[in-house]
Design brief:
Elements: H1 53-61, E1 64-68, E2 77-78, E3 84-85, H2 87-100, E4 106-110, H3 116-121, E5 127-128, H4 136-141, E6 144-146, E7 151-153, E8 155-160, E9 175-179, H5 183-194, E10 200-204, H6 207-215, E11 221-225, H7 226-234, E12 242-244, E13 252-254, E14 257-259, H8 263-281, H9 289-295, H10 299-305, H11 321-328, H12 332-339
Parallel strand pairs: 1-4, 1-5, 9-10, 9-11
Antiparallel strand pairs: 2-3, 6-14, 7-13, 8-11, 8-12
Helix pairs in contact: 2-8, 2-11
């Protein structure tokens, strides 16, 4: 078995994450200008109509408090104009669109890894949409519930191409940067222990510190979710000099987290996510949704968009809740492509996040809208 020979600690300095994608021209969707959606209708719901304590608080406040990552390119970050953007941010916006008919009625609360669950449990935020892995211990012991999965991820390794590595098993003896208090730390230990390999952990407090340490040559590999590694690579002085190794060493289902004991609120968050997924499956996009609401003869489309019946009433929402999501934020494919997919600097493939019935099938699947 080969033993890793670490490189020199000299490495090119990291580039400020705020410069990625110009970060002023990144598209945030059909209604994502700095102005609010034109003539967005006011929410017709009132706090007294709701049995949900969280929904009552949200309606009284007039905004959703959404816990997000402090700065992860593609998922949750502020652009050069100070506007929040990203994959997770768009789902916060979708939730506001479902409730208020206005995707801009969100207050973003940046939270570190150690802060996130306490902020949710104490009511500082209404929902945590912040690249948080669904695990048994968190679900069972942290007084929180997961409302769904909006991104299927897995842990990997970012390394310099100059190392000429083909597999993570060749990292025997390497210095590996990993974030403390994360699932990544345990996954890393499990991976090396199961294979009888050794490594030298370089424990960091957060993603920024990990990227800085890797860029400065303080570690030979950076281990985290592949999506986070792809974001980290875009901030390096020469992204093409780095590669993500093929091994995926864990399952990291990421999704929105809510407080336990508020079933109606959990349903609203869950079906906000599902509305974007089923809209893509049915071919409903931000560009076609208006015409389809008026003209579609597909019963599923008509139910989704409120042309027929009022499925939103079962959630405590109005009949056009899903129409507002798609028209103002887009379907799942649109959200994915502009933030982390083909139309973004990350250019992540759909992979497991493809629709269940796509030519290259993925895991994305929504219960029926009926």
């Amino acid at each position: 078995m080969s033993v890793f020979r670490p490189l020199s600690r000299l490495a090119a300095p990291i580039v400020l994450a705020g410069l990625v994608c110009g970060l002023t021209a990144c598209n945030q969707g059909p209604k994502a200008s700095d102005d609010k959606p034109a003539q967005a209708p006011e929410a017709t719901l009132t706090p007294t109509q709701s049995d949900s304590a969280t929904l009552k608080a949200v309606l009284t406040r007039g905004r959703v408090n959404c816990g997000v990552h402090p700065g992860l390119i593609g998922f949750s970050y502020k652009d050069n104009s100070g506007r929040w953007r990203g994959f997770d941010v768009d789902f916060c916006r979708a939730l506001a669109a479902a409730i208020f008919s206005d995707a801009d009625k969100v207050t973003y609360v940046p939270l570190t890894t150690t802060e996130r669950f306490e902020a949710l449990k104490t009511g500082k935020v209404d929902v945590l949409w912040r690249s948080t892995s669904w695990t048994l211990s968190r679900d069972a012991a942290d007084q929180v519930d997961y409302a769904g999965i909006n991104y299927y991820d897995g842990q990997g390794f970012l390394v310099r191409k100059s190392l000429r590595l083909n597999s993570a098993t060749e990292l025997n003896g390497a210095r590996i940067c990993v974030q403390t208090g994360s699932t990544s730390e345990l996954n890393l230990a499990d991976f090396f222990r199961a294979r009888g390999l050794k490594y030298n952990p370089v424990v960091v407090k957060n993603e920024d510190e990990g990227r800085d340490a890797y860029a400065a040559g303080q570690c030979d590999a950076l281990s985290s979710d592949v999506s986070a590694l792809a974001a980290a690579r875009t901030t390096l002085s020469d992204p093409t000099a780095h590669t993500i190794l093929p091994e995926i060493i864990s399952k990291e289902p990421l999704g929105p987290v809510v407080r336990q004991g508020d079933d109606q609120w959990t349903d609203i968050v869950r079906w906000t996510l599902y509305a974007t997924i089923v809209a893509e499956e049915l071919g409903v996009s931000s560009e076609t949704v208006k015409a389809q609401q008026l003209e579609s003869q597909n019963p599923e489309v008509r139910r989704l968009l409120g042309s027929e019946g009022n499925l939103g009433g079962g959630l405590g929402l109005g009949p056009e809740w899903a129409y507002n999501i798609v028209s103002q934020v887009g379907n799942y494919g649109e959200i994915f492509d502009r933030n982390i997919g083909a139309d973004s600097p990350l250019k992540l493939s759909r992979g497991l996040n493809a629709q269940w019935n796509a030519p290259e099938r993925g895991l994305l699947y929504s219960p029926p809208v009926r």
